[in-house]
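Final report, closing paragraph on structural work. Over the funding period we assembled a curated collection of sequence-structure pairs, and we close with a single example.
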Amino acid sequence: MALPESAYYVGIDWGSAEHAVCVLTEAGRVKTEFAITHTATGFADLVRRLARLGAAEDIPVAIERPDGRLVDLLLEAGHPEVPVKSNAIKAWRDAEVLSGAKSDPGDAMVIAEYLRLRHHKLSPGRPFAPQTKALRTVVRTRDDVVRLRVMATNMLSALLDAFWPGARTLFADVESPIALDFLTRYPTPASAAALGEKRMAAFCVKHSYCGRRSPADLVKRLRSAPAGATDEHATEAGRDSVIALVTVLRTLGTVKKDLDRSVDAHLAQHPDGRLFTSLPRAGRVNAAQMLAEWGDSRDAYDGPDAVAAFAGVAPVTKASGRMRGVSYRWACNKRLRQALTTFADNSRHESPWAADVYQRARARGMDHPHAIRVLARAWVRVIYRCWLNHEPYDPARHGAAQHFLPQPELAQAI
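Its predicted structure, as stored:
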């Protein structure tokens, strides 16, 4: 939904401690300019000043942030809040301010002018329901923790490659509990110098090792690797570094498990939770990721194509004269794209319809990532209909999927 005509247009240039505000009239003249501090008093002062101009629902506000406490307060006050892209504002400023001059009040004016001239093409942000806000918070935090864990795992692997290669290749995953237990007990090559088959067997029993390798194989694997550092100074520094990274990985593993439980609890409380968990092979975490980024406002999208573009699973067409090309969409919600493509990739192993869409895309010459995006876009249309109707996914009611279901006569014969 585009914004209606308004008597005033407000632009806010976000700052860490202070925010510049500019109010333009419908004719483009400056009504007022001021700055507010990033405090409760500053936010209240902004709402109070804007209230003097008229009804909040008639005064749109543009800001280069889609969320935050300032955005929440503007929405609670009733203002149409328009999140604008920083790249769009930069391009607009470069075209309008030929001298290249830049200041916070000047940027606020540029944002307000952008809103005034393009309000008919801009849509206000839609506030999330409390359940969606809570789910998005824990889901995004969990995803960030997973990324931190991957980073810490890579750091530990690189350290062991340089300091003690044998410990790096002893177990399949260096971040697994058994590998972290081993590095806690034997953090240096010197500490494992006397480690024999009997001690390794005792270690495996104590830590409930259920791998396929015998203690003798593990010891052989450890000894056949390149020798680790034995210098006194290198050993001391390596031990401290290994123990530090092991502690980080243990902590992140515990935090991830706690967040997994929190995600599951908030997903169960969400009104749309049952819908997303009904999708084939969605699981709990992936369903929560899709729902947290998709949102709950039925007025936020014009249709499934808008969702596909927002998620980055729809291509971008570029045409000029006789030249025409289709390219990858970079500007999108990357978290939603990751969630949808992960689901699409998993769904083809359970849904015959999804497998058929994927195989036909591959047959047309697409590589795996491209075919998965095609499948994700097809799923967006299905999910969007379920989402509008507040109904879980049912393959028996999915027209395209019905052709892949067992026919009643065939099922009875079997």
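Residues 410-414 have pLDDT under 50 and may be disordered. The beta strands are 8-13, 18-25, 30-37, 61-63, 81-83, 316-320, 323-327. We thank the funder for supporting this effort.
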